[in-house]
Fold this sequence. Notes:
This protein has two domains: 3-66 and 366-406, Roll (Urease, subunit C, domain 1); 68-357, Alpha-Beta Barrel (TIM Barrel). By secondary structure, it is α/β, with parallel strands linked by helices. Helix 6 packs across helix 7. It has helices at residues 16-19, 47-50, 82-89, 94-99, 104-112, 116-132, 148-162, 187-204, 222-234, 251-257, 271-280, 288-293, 302-307, 328-337, 343-349, 352-357, 385-388; strands spanning 3-11, 26-35, 38-43, 56-66, 68-70, 135-141, 168-176, 210-215, 238-243, 262-265, 283-286, 312-314, 375-378, 395-400, 403-406. It contains 17 helices and 15 strands. Helices cover 37% and strands 23% of the residues. Helix 11 (271-280) links the parallel strand 10 (262-265) and strand 11. The strands form two sheets. It has an eight-stranded parallel beta sheet. Bound molecules: 3-[(4S)-2,5-dioxoimidazolidin-4-yl]propanoic acid (DI6) and fe (iii) ion. Residues 72, 74, 242, 317, 319 line the site of fe (iii) ion.
Amino acid sequence: MDKVFINLHLVSMVDKQQTGSDGYQVLKDAMIGVRNGKVEYVGEPCPSILHGHPDIIDCAHALVTPGFIDCHTHLIFAGNRANEFEQRLQGVPYEEIAKQGGGILSTVQATRKTSEDELYHLAIHRLEGLKRDGVTTIEIKSGYGLTLDDEIKMLKVAKRISELPDMKVSSTLLAAHAVPPEYKNRSDEYIDLICDTIIPQVVKLNLANHVDVFCEGIGFSPKQCERVFRATLKHGLRIKGHTEQLSNLGGSALAASMGADSVDHIEYLDENGVKALAKNNTVATLLPGAFYYLNESKLPPIPLLRQYKVPMAIATDFNPGTSPIASLRTIMNMACTLFKLTPEESLRGVTCHAAQALGLQHFRGKIAVGMEADFAIWQLDSPAELSYRLGVPDLIARVVDGEIFHEK
Ligand code: DI6
Ligand code: FE
């Protein structure tokens, strides 16, 4: 074994049935052994492994969770939209600002004008906030380029971020985020461009795992989204969707029926939609930051999601318009206070369920033998504190593929 972590309180997120301990399954004074970036041992301290081992890390009774996964972000963009924040506080609705050419399109203008290098530096700076909250995997979407070249520029930035030793990236093509100005009133032709040119090129350059859409009145119709999904599946990528955020168009059920790993936002999802998620094992990704910034009052159907046993992930949705919050722990807290998730559900939402939202549940999101050795080490007594306290630097270190990255 390369490294052994000892004296830790383990929150593995492995299912209850397998461990028989309490709701969080905290295993006190546990040990984790790592080899070649994977977990090779987890459980009670094992004297035969420890005896004479050259690389023992004493965690001094720290709490160890899986590395957090932020499974929905728009990390890469230029500019900011504080002016719209001010407008919205004066009562102008988000959809109205979008219709006037603000909103997503104002960030598109700024992002098109900005070089790959500059976008990279802006994104790296924002990433610091997420690292401080124990994030070791981030999903990053394109969607502020909306031309072949600009979408590829964004995904190349995501690829550069993925080359950092301490951050794993899952990249998503979101060309169907808004109708670009040059395609105004010709949105079907833009869908042609996405299906016939952008998706094939992104696949050729191996720049994304998923393709996402914004299925909404101010985005694309279910019919248009279905075309994008078909083209995606034909090219061997996986699908997900921004669905039922502002209205109920049936995008979630459509995406689920076509095998989506997740549908995201879903404030307006109805019971039939929830059933479709359950049937297709699609994750419901909740984004309380956008709910908060938009002053939304319609809650996602959380009691129904529980009733039908749909896994719930939570994520920052970090973006310049509706969720400028680069803190996953703030989002965990909001999931509890605004959506009434339990702190345990919120922890699942950023670990095992977030992994599933990215199709990575067999590799990340739990601490178990054979899984990637990605952990967060916290100076905390109990896991509920992760959702409870804000702003205190509780993180001691992150571990990515068995390598330790100290925060303090
Ligand atoms: N829904 C969102 O919350 C983000 N995109 C989307 O489709 C918002 C993006 C933005 O306002 O820039
Ligand atoms: Fe989003």
